[in-house]
Amino acid sequence: MRLLTILKLIQLPAALALGPGDADTMFKDFNSAFLVRSGGDIFYKEALNNGNQSATWSGSLNILGAQDAYERTGDPETKTLINELLTTWLKANPPNENDDPNPDPWDRNGWNDDLGWFTLALIRGYQMTGNEAFLGPAKSGFDYAFRRGWDTQYNGGGIWEENPKYAAREDPPKEPNKEALSNDSLGKVACLIYQSTLDRSYLQKAEQIYAWVSKNLINHSTGQVNTGIYMNGTRNTATAVYNQGTFIDYANLLLAITGTRTYYDDAKKALEFGRASLTTNGIFSKDANHINTWADEFARGAGHFVRDNGLWDEYYSWMVSNADFILKNRRSDLGITWNAWDKPTPSDASLISNKFVSAVAWLQYTPPVIPGKVGGIHTLVNQRTGMAIDSAGERENGAKVVQWGVNDSLNQRWLLTQNADSSWNIINLASWKALDFPGESKADGVEMVLWTANRDENQRWEIEEQEDGSYKISNLASGKVLDDGSGAENGTVLVQNGWSGEEGQRWVLQ
Questions:
Q1: Residue that wins the pLDDT comparison between 12 and 422
Q2: Quick check: helix, strand or coil at residue 93?
């Protein structure tokens, strides 16, 4: 019975199967429909018939879709676009008004999940562009949301969705509650700030928020993420695909940062619940007019979790099925797809741009062919020495990359993600720095270092499987291969050398 159910879920529509270039086309068509360049500003507009800038949190959601496209490709033009979008967004939504005596960022907004989306777009933007103008507001925005939102008087902790003093001003006044949307979005932000700064106070807050969410909002028997909890302890057990997805992504971030297996189990169960219980015949679909985005956060959560943990055999067909329905039900004139992926997209110019970004996001995380064994989190072991590539506990730019006896520590765990040119990024999970070929010298013997990830050519690696199952790892900028440095001692620095095919230049992915 279960096999028949799974087969039903992954049946594909008869036409328009996902192919190479479809993710690029979906993003390009979204930009053609909604991207506006006006003077020195660049932004996504509210709707096809509304040229105003998509404001505050809804603008952030559109920018997150553009960031998904960059994450997939590493395309320099998309990086520039993200920098421009966030610069314009900050200009329109400054953390403090010029005449505001209150230094708290975005204090005029009482919704903590809004600050979650603001700061999520900003911290991802910082990681992608290196623009310090995005890091400061991301940190101060998170700090303020946590400071004002975290409350232990009710429910033993948790972050208010709308802070009580703001809820009391609503007409009529609203009963404040603590929701998955505010806690999980801000928890993700704390994780990304930790990756960017290695400030452990942010990791501690991320773990603190997660522990509260796990206790109060998650049904661990089913994987369902409940919407929230009220001051009297009553739970709102409604579900939403974006809540489910944000939690999966949050759990996967903490899994990568800490290596703690519980996060894997939580993410897996939440993904299964979303696939089985929040779809129609396996397909995400929501045509409600009041909904902005729907499955964009699920695309990120599922995409990252499946990629990082090598689960393509289990989920790829289902992901492709959703992608195929997105393609099948595009508007034929504009190439954009709304939230109801199993229904034709209506020709309604008043539909807001947010309703089309989930389809963009899903295609960025669904490759046109099932990925092989290289992507995801691995320990890279030298075939000659049996020792692993190790960051040696270093976290500064320019620190040497060494080999060390295999111990499965985070120093030896590396996240491999691919660029549009088929090269690979190799990111250390202890330092969150990239394996980097320094400088311009292409000479043999140049030592490899850690450096802040920027996806430049000196951080791009070609990884080619050899006949014996090992891998040759070549730097795109120098053309030289990663070499064990002819040493077999802990701490031997890795170098680049011309390819000889010897065991010291062959690597095994574990």
A1: 422
A2: coil
Cα separations (Å) of 453 from 290, 426, 460? 38, 9, 10
DSSP state letters, 242-275: HHHHHHHHHHHHHHHHH--HHHHHHHHHHHHHHH
- What SS3 state is found at 60? helix
Q: What span, in angstroms and rounded, lies between the C-alpha atoms of 278 and 131?
A: 38
pLDDT of 254 strictly over 90: yes
Q: Which of 228, 231, 229 is nearest to 239 (CA)?
A: 228
d(C-alpha 193, C-alpha 250), whole Å: 13
Helix extents (H) in 291-403: 296-308, 312-328, 357-364
How many helices (H) does the chain have, and how many strands (E)? 14, 22
Q: What is the end-to-end Cα distance of the chain in Å, rounded?
A: 35
| Strand ranges for 148-264 from DSSP E | 177-179, 218-219, 224-225, 228-230, 235-236
Q: In a 3-state reduction of DSSP, which class is residue 409?
A: coil
DSSP state of 118: H
Q: What are the residues facing 416 on neighbouring strands?
A: 376, 426
Rounded CA gap, 458 and 7, in Å? Answer: 44
Which value, in Å, is the radius of gyration of the alpha carbons in the chain? 23
Residue ranges of E strands in 380-476: 380-382, 387-390, 402-405, 414-418, 424-428, 434-436, 449-451, 461-465, 471-475
pLDDT tier for residue 98 given thresholds of 50, 70 and 90: low
State CA 180 to chain mean position distance: 18
178-195 tens-digit pLDDT = 999 999 999 999 999 999
* pLDDT at residue 100, rounded to an integer: 64
Mean residue pLDDT of the chain comes to 95
Name the band, by pLDDT with cuts 50, 70 and 90, for residue 103.
confident
Report the alpha-carbon distance of residue 129 to residue 248 in Å, rounded. 25
Q: Are 57 and 114 in contact (CB under 8 A)?
A: yes
Say which residues have a Cβ less than 8 Å from residue 426's Cβ, sequence separation at least 6.
380, 414, 415, 416, 434, 435, 459, 461
* Mean pLDDT within 35-63: 97
- Average pLDDT of the segment spanning 220-224: 98
User: What would the mean pLDDT of 339-360 be, rounded to a whole number?
Assistant: 98
| Cβ burial, residue 281 (10 Å; 0-12/13-18/19+) | exposed
* CA-to-CA dists, residue 427 to 53, 321, 443, 478, angstroms: 35, 30, 24, 19
